Amino acid sequence: MLIAMRGRIKCAQRTFPQLSNPPHLTSPTRGESVNQLTIGIAALVLVCTAFSVLWLRTRSRSRLGRADQAHRAAFEQSPNGVLLVDAESLRIVDANPAVQRNLGYTLEELRGLTLSQLFSDDGAEPEALLRRLRNPSPQLPIEARQRCKDGTLRNVEVSGHRLDLDKRHVLALTAHDITVRRKAEAQLLEKQQHLDHLAHHDQLTGLPNRLFLAAYLPGAIEDAKRS
Questions:
Q1: What is the pLDDT of residues 165-219, one digit of tens each?
Q2: Bridge partners of residue 154, in order along the sequence
């Protein structure tokens, strides 16, 4: 029986020669081995490159996320009031908690206001003040008065700069309260005027003394000659 099976196999091999040496069982040549090795190395390089790109993107996004968190924390925890204002309409876009606390407004209320409703200047026209606020400078603060919700006014120095936020031009304005400094300056000026009066007037009669005459008489004589 075994001899008969061998005979049948040989007969089939003579009829179909490819069965005696099937392609998938043949040993690869040296050139084919080199090509297969090259393809394997190229595939490995592609996989490593894709993994590196994915890792770098993930790391970059993580860094950007941490930077955004740091900027947001600096904005919200600043002791000075910070406003983000649309550069075209001058309408308030965002405000940190210090602004809300100092002025008595909620964030929703502030977003419905413009700079002209929050800032004024007794010595300048409203349009002149708005032109200066449109072009803020961190080196040259603008002195103005800031209006609170209850109608009271605060003396502030406003500095800032322009930002590009989501393809939108925004003004970042920081308002520093100088009310206490203004009061101290007024008190100092009053004391200086009082000391000047004591130095140039007699303490008993209140009349000008010789120092007053020496300081002001020459100028008065020159004015009289010109007139």
A1: 777 899 999 998 888 887 887 888 889 888 888 888 888 888 888 888 888 888 8
A2: 146
Read off the pLDDT of each residue in 102-111 and give the average, rounded to a whole number: 93
pLDDT beyond 80 at 67: no
pLDDT at 226: 85
Task: Decide which of 81 and 46 is more confident.
Answer: 81
Put the strands of the sheet holding 153-164 in their side by side order: 92-95, 81-86, 169-177, 153-164, 142-147, 119-120
Give the residue from 178, 187, 123 showing the smallest Cα distance to 146. Answer: 178
- Bridge partners of 161, per DSSP, are 172
% of the chain surpassing 70 pLDDT: 74
Question: Are 150 and 104 within 8 A, CB to CB?
Answer: yes
What is the full DSSP assignment across the chain? -HHHHHHHHHHHHHH-GGGTS-GGGSPPPHHHHHHHHHHHHHHHHHHHHHHHHHHHHHHHHHHHHHHHHHHHHHHHH-SSEEEEEETTT-BEEEE-HHHHHHH---HHHHTT-BGGGTEE-TTS-HHHHHHHHHS--SSS-EEEEEE-TTS-EEEEEEEEEEEE-SS-EEEEEEEEE-HHHHHHHHHHHHHHHHHHHHHHB-TTT--B-HHHHHHHHHHHHHHHHH-
Enumerate domains of the chain plus CATH numbers: 73-177 (3.30.450.20), 183-226 (no CATH)
